[in-house]
Write a structure and sequence with these properties.
single chain, two-stranded antiparallel ribbon, transmembrane helix, membrane, transmembrane
């Protein structure tokens, strides 16, 4: 029961945390990830309030992630904030906030479920992943301050990319571990 749910969360994180584009098209669209979150969380929603909240929040994210399938890229010759104004900015901020809340609720739901079932290692790891995730989001916002400092901006971007890849892999491993360790308890 839990194994399939956490498999859906695994693939949901895969699609939402990785962004590969060919031209302007996202070949790993976030909308698929949020649909998988909804499916996985539908199974887990009865176990605690965190999973229920995350399931509810995944619905608007399915809709808000549609425009991200195709995005115009900003020219590197000049900074153009025109495309970021208005409606696009509101969608971007709403998506960021709701996305953070979904990750929080999923990881806290994992922590609570693991604690309730006596799998303390998984509970501690879920808490660690949340702290790492929120720090990565803060560092991402810091990009707007660092972007105008030559050379440091490149180092910062590379460090942020490496940290994001490591965190993504660790969250994926956690979802796999949850499916394996919590499945044996639910049987």
């Amino acid at each position: 029961m839990y194994k399939n749910a956490f498999s859906n969360l695994y693939w949901g994180f895969f699609f939402t945390m990785l962004d590969f584009r060919i031209g302007h098209f996202d070949i790993l669209p976030d909308i698929i990830g949020y649909i998988l979150f909804f499916i996985g969380l539908s199974t887990l929603a009865y176990t605690n309030d965190y999973f229920r909240k995350a399931k509810t929040l995944s619905i608007p994210m399915i809709i808000l992630s549609i425009p991200a399938i195709y995005e115009n890229q900003i020219s590197f010759n000049s900074v153009n904030f025109g495309t970021m104004l208005g409606f696009s900015l509101i969608i971007g901020i709403a998506s960021l906030i709701i996305g953070i809340l979904i990750v929080y609720d999923i990881l806290q739901g994992v922590r609570e479920l693991a604690t309730h079932n006596g799998v303390r290692e998984v509970a501690f790891e879920a808490e660690d992943r949340w702290v790492q995730f929120i720090w990565l989001q803060v560092a991402g916002v810091g990009t707007f301050l660092i972007i105008f400092i030559p050379f440091i901006n490149l180092i910062y971007a590379i460090a942020l990319l490496i940290a994001a890849i490591i965190l993504t892999v660790n969250i994926l491993k956690l979802m796999k571990k949850c499916g394996e360790q919590l499945e044996s308890i639910s049987l």
